[in-house]
């Protein structure tokens, strides 16, 4: 059992050590009444620690966060051993004791809840020993965001959209459903760059990406695969429905106006190729290559149009 049994004087020595720790530590009964609080030296906000002493956690924290505490204390009680917990808490969860105003601000903690038996008492106690890992969690999320999204357009990057394509293809193989795979290319993009500069080109990319991302269905995914090319995946969608959805997107872009930094109103159009998985496919890229070929066919036939790949159109 990873519990700590100590006489009273050793507890006092432990408290003295905790005082100099950067971590925040709560000394409480197993039922949840806070006996003492050690604020620690590494904290990003201030709690009214004196107001916490003698109070039950349910008096101090929100009902939702109190449920987390209750579940953890029950695990400690049943296992009679140290429990580890990683959790988030918002300012709203501790608004009665916290001095911050932003209710939705989130902090992350790593905690060890240590059961303690005192030789002079029949009461069971715990040390709720917490370490603030907010900076670490936020850094991990930032790294994950960079790895997942295209920095310029804020849609999925090539690696992520191709991962979704693989997942969709795996679903097709197991369930025999289908999906619409759409390749999109911005018309005359090189001309825009050459005439108005790369900053204007970036604005056009962002404009198109935002329009597409805001007008696909929940569950559909979009990513930039390079240059001025995007891919949309319509999961569990017939080819007929995919054509309707794609044509709607083309018209939305055609009817929109991109306001360049030079105050110029730039009209954007796109060429779009549609494909789907076939039973003869050996790889998810087979469908993507067909969509790419259909997109180039749309461009060669005048641009600003949607073309279905020849394997599905019968042409």
General description of the model:
- With 315 residues, this protein is α+β, with helices and mostly antiparallel strands.
- The protein has helices spanning 8-19, 49-52, 57-60, 63-79, 134-148, 158-175, 189-196, 198-215, 239-255, 284-300, 310-313; strands at 4-6, 24-29, 34-38, 83-90, 106-118, 124-132, 180-186, 221-226, 229-234, 258-259, 265-266, 270-275, 306-308.
- It has 2 domains: 10-139, 2-Layer Sandwich (Beta-Lactamase), CATH 3.30.450; 148-308, Reverse transcriptase/Diguanylate cyclase domain (Alpha-Beta Plaits, 2-Layer Sandwich).
- The strands form 3 sheets. Strands 1, 2, 3, 4, 5 and 6 form a 6-stranded mixed β-sheet that branches. A 5-stranded mixed β-sheet has the order 8-9-7-12-13, sandwiched between helices. A two-stranded antiparallel sheet has the order 10-11.
- Helix 7 packs across helix 8.
- It is elongated, with a radius of gyration of 29 Å.
- The termini are far apart.
- The mean pLDDT is 90.
List keywords for this structure.
5-stranded mixed sheet, 43% helix, Alpha-Beta Plaits, 315 residues, 13 strands, alpha+beta, 24% strand
Give a brief rundown of this model.
By secondary structure, the protein is of the alpha+beta class.
Classify the secondary structure makeup into a structural class: alpha+beta
- Rounded average pLDDT: 90
Based on the coordinates given, report the CATH architecture of the largest domain.
2-Layer Sandwich
Beta fraction of the residues? 15-25%
Give the CATH superfamily of the largest domain. Reverse transcriptase/Diguanylate cyclase domain
- Spell the H/E element sequence: EHEEHHHEEEHHEHHEEHEEEHEH
Tell me, what is the CATH class of the largest domain? Answer: Alpha Beta
Number of helices: 11
What profile does the largest beta sheet have?
6 strands, mixed
* Unreliable spans: none
The beta-strand count equals: 13
| CA-based shape | elongated
Roughly how many Å apart are the termini? 73 Å
Radius of gyration over all CA atoms, rounded: 29 Å
Number of domains: 2
Catalytic activity: 2 GTP = 3',3'-c-di-GMP + 2 diphosphate
Organism: Vibrio palustris
Cofactor: Mg(2+)
Domain GGDEF: 177-311
């Amino acid at each position: 059992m990873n519990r700590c049994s100590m006489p009273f004087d050793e507890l006092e020595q432990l408290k003295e050590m905790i005082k100099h720790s950067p971590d925040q530590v709560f000394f409480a009964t197993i039922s949840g009444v806070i006996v003492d609080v050690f604020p620690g030296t590494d904290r990003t906000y201030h709690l009214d620690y004196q107001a916490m002493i003698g109070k039950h956690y349910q008096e101090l924290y929100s009902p939702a966060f109190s449920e987390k505490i209750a579940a953890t204390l029950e695990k400690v009680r049943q296992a009679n051993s140290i429990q580890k917990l990683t959790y988030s808490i918002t300012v709203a969860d501790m608004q009665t004791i916290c001095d911050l105003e932003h209710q939705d601000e989130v902090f992350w903690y790593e905690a060890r809840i240590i059961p303690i038996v005192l030789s002079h008492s029949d009461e069971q106690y715990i040390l709720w020993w917490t370490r603030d890992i907010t900076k670490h969690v936020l850094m991990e999320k930032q790294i994950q965001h960079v790895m997942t999204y295209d920095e310029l357009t804020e849609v999925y990057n090539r690696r992520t959209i191709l991962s979704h394509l693989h997942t969709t293809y795996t679903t097709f193989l197991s369930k025999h459903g289908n999906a619409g795979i759409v390749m999109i290319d911005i018309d005359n993009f090189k001309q825009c760059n050459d005439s108005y500069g790369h900053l204007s080109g970036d604005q056009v990319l962002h404009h198109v990406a935002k329009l597409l991302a805001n007008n696909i269905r929940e569950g559909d995914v979009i990513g930039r695969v390079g240059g001025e090319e995007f891919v949309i995946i319509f999961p569990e969608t017939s080819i007929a429905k995919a054509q309707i959805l794609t044509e709607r997107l083309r018209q939305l872009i055609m009817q929109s106006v991109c306001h360049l930094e030079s105050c110029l109103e730039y009209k954007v159009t796109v060429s779009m190729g549609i494909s789907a998985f076939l039973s003869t496919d050996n790889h998810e890229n087979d469908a993507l290559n067909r969509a790419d070929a259909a997109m180039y066919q749309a461009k060669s036939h005048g641009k600003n149009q949607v073309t279905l790949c020849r394997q599905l159109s019968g042409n």
